[in-house]
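Example 3.2
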Amino acid sequence: MQNGRSSIVLEASKNKEKIASRSKWAEARGYGDVAASEDGATGMSFAKDEEKNQLTVTPIKSLDGTVTLPGSKSLSNRCLLLAALSDGNTRVENLLESDDIRYMLEALDTLKVPVERDADDKTAVTVTGQAGPIDSPTPEESLELFLGNAGTAMRPLAAALCMGKGKFVLDGVPRMRERPIADLIDGLKQLGADVSCVEETGCPPVTINANGLNGGTASISGKMSSQFLSSLLMASPVVDGDVTIAIKDELISAPYVSLTIGLMKKFGVNVKIE
């Protein structure tokens, strides 16, 4: 019983500390006494219940200021890959600061794709495109790319590297080895790629022996992930010849595919939808 009483007293003490902290925060911003105060400019009011140890804040009437939204993971890695495949320099701004983007940037570094970081803005880079497929910088040896749990790096890179020349192994953390990629691998094989994943699980690591592709037709499922279709779409422009991709069932997350096509058009790619 004594232990239970001590924990109750301790919890009450913590609650009072929180109330005191909130009071200081409000007072520092000109809201006055939090016990019962109102800010005339915004209509924000506070009421503190000492007995219940709780603070009530009513909705404000207006809010002014500037908010900078963080970049999108899906947009960031799509832009980075398209920039790497394109001709010339592309400046990409407002990259999301996340593991997915970090692993993509590290992969481009390993592939010797020039990526210049902006010293004054850590969310901006300039990518020098390869004007075509990305070839291995070590053609005689297998190049390993560790991509953590970054699906937005693993899947697009698996498709893009099949279009160039070289030997690659794409792997990640244990969780990545549980994320399906077999449908994408199947679509790449239909285009003539020498690529494989773990047969028993249909998951990474992905092994690629690339020697370029000449276009063709691939029929893939759209039920598992729209990233498979997006990955094929982004990689297709660098092959010799046209690529036709058919969805053999339902396409989930169609807006993400529309996002991919919209970005490709910004890079000058002609995508025909039938």
